[in-house]
Amino acid sequence: MKLLDCETIQPAMLRSADDLREESGYPVLALDIDSLAALDEEWVNKLRQWSRQQPCAVIGVGSSDSPVAHCVDSIVDGSEFKAMLRRIAANPQATLVLVQVLRAIEDLAPEDALMVESLGYAALQSGDEFKRWLTHYQARLLTPPVPESGPPVLVTRSQAQLSVVLNRPLNNNAFSVEMRDALVEAFELVNLDDSLHQVSVFANGRCFCTGGELTEFGKVASPIAGHLIRSQRSPAKFIMSSPERYHFHVHKACVGSGVELPACAGYFTASEKTLFWLPELSMGLIPGAGGCISISRRIGRQRTAYLVIMNKKINAQTALQWGLIDAITDEIDK
Q1: CA 264, CA 21: separation in Å to the nearest integer?
Q2: Rounded Cα gap, residues 62 and 59, in angstroms
Q3: Which of 95, 119, 193, 320 has minimal CB crowding within 10 Å?
Q4: Residues in CB range of 45: below 8 A, 6 or more apart
Q5: What confidence tens digit (pLDDT) does each residue in 219-264 have?
Q6: DSSP letters of 13-82?
Q7: Whether residue 184 has pLDDT greater than 70
Q8: Cα distance between the two ends of the chain
Q9: What is the CATH number of domain 128-328?
């Protein structure tokens, strides 16, 4: 696939995205952002506006230090470019919604950004890519969650501090409906009680959270019903209303919502051997538990899109370097 560079970008901006994509053979536009560094300020501004209007992902190939890096949806070096093209071609609908949501929410208030994310997620729930994944997943032998006793979340108070512990260790603390509702109940209490100054959230078991409970996927009555539920019962909404009060500490596997919710907090720490993973695109979806907002506001929309599109797992050291987490520690403030 030929990259648009300093010589070809200006005539390309006069053509339709359909023509450019048909010519390239991929549902994406790709820019040589090192070459485009030669553009003057006026053309950089035009490029940014043009890129944000494209009905597909606009990928920059080159250095993230390029002065036009902010104009694209994600950045890869030459060694990863073909892999990214394959990933986008496998799920073009989810990729499009992902980059459009990340563009749209960049300057929105958190509550408005959560609404946009949820609407994007709902659109994909009725899309072909999610239906394809769901059919494939349901055709396999599903293992139901292991029955566990006790509440899904343990909540204890000590003066001005609240301790919230995910308590489904046998199921790797999967983000199930009962887990979501229990977290909403706890965080609603925080929202109503100004005397609670600190909320510490961590988990029992071998890992923090492996993301959504897969056996519950596709069970909501309709995409709009799912949007209404997320609008009313979103743990992220409560965390984002006063993030400075929250400290999430995570360990080992943090998948999907297991990354998205902690990233909402004002202070986010991880144990040394923690891994972070956002696999939603391979399911025909986008992060839908607040992650489009919480993660992009920590590491930027380009790196967020990169993590999601490339299905990348990153360790705690990389997460700290990027700003996804605030510290690496094995100490939990209980």
Answers
A1: 36
A2: 10
A3: 193
A4: none
A5: 999 999 999 999 999 999 999 999 999 999 999 999 999 999 999 9
A6: TTS-HHHHHHHHTSSEEEEETTGGGGS-HHHHHHHHHHHHT-SSEEEEES-TTSTTGGGSSEEE-TTTHH
A7: yes
A8: 53
A9: 3.90.226.10
Give me the helices (H) in 69-154, please: 81-90, 92-105, 110-125, 128-139
Phi, psi of 208 (to 5 degrees): -75, -60
The token duo for 38 is: 């030669």
Q: How many angstroms separate the CA atoms of 235 and 179, rounded?
A: 10
Q: What is the pTM of this model?
A: 0.96
Cβ pair 130, 283 in contact under 8 A: yes
Q: What is the H or E stretch that residue 276 is in? A: strand 275-277
Distance CA 27, CA 218 (A): 27
| Long-range own/partner contacts, residues 98-101 (CB < 8 A, 24 or more apart) | 98/57, 98/281, 98/286, 98/292, 98/305, 98/308, 98/309, 99/56, 99/57, 99/58, 99/73, 99/74, 99/305, 101/286, 101/292
Across the chain, mean pLDDT equals: 96
pLDDT of 141:
66
DSSP code of residue 221: S
SS3 174: coil
| Burial tier of 274 (Cβ tally within 10 Å: 0-12, 13-18, 19+) | buried
Task: For the chain, give every domain's residue range.
Answer: 9-90, 128-328
What percent helix, strand, coil does the chain show, rounded to 5? Answer: 50, 15, 35
